[in-house]
Design brief:
With 98 residues, the protein is mainly alpha-helical. It is 51% helix and 9% strand. The chain has a two-stranded antiparallel ribbon. It comes from Jimgerdemannia flammicorona.
Length: 98
């Protein structure tokens, strides 16, 4: 399984934390499945349906695993290609250095 490209504690450009600062990979690693779904729903309000989120729930995707997701892994879990690409691109954005 691939690991995130950022080191623990690095700042993430894409989003902000609940305290208003930038998210860190350490924060994301603590997310549960519902928090991941909340983030995806807020960031991409029209991209996903309940079927997509059920894949995340069924596979018990939490923060650490979320940061290592790829389009191929998501498709292997049964997610359609479109939503899988959106999530994979989001993960890349969250884990790439500015």
């Amino acid at each position: 399984m691939s690991s995130p490209t950022k080191t623990h504690g690095d700042e993430v450009e894409a989003s902000t934390s609940s305290s208003g600062g930038r998210l860190t990979t350490d924060e994301i690693m603590k997310w549960n499945t519902d928090r991941i779904i909340q983030h995806l729903t807020k960031k991409f309000p029209e991209e996903f349906d309940e079927e997509d989120f059920n894949v995340l729930r069924k596979e018990k995707i939490k923060g650490r695993v979320f940061l290592g997701l790829t389009k191929e892994k998501l498709k292997a879990y049964g997610m359609a290609g479109g939503p899988a690409k959106v999530i994979a691109d989001c993960v890349t954005e969250l884990t790439s250095k500015p």
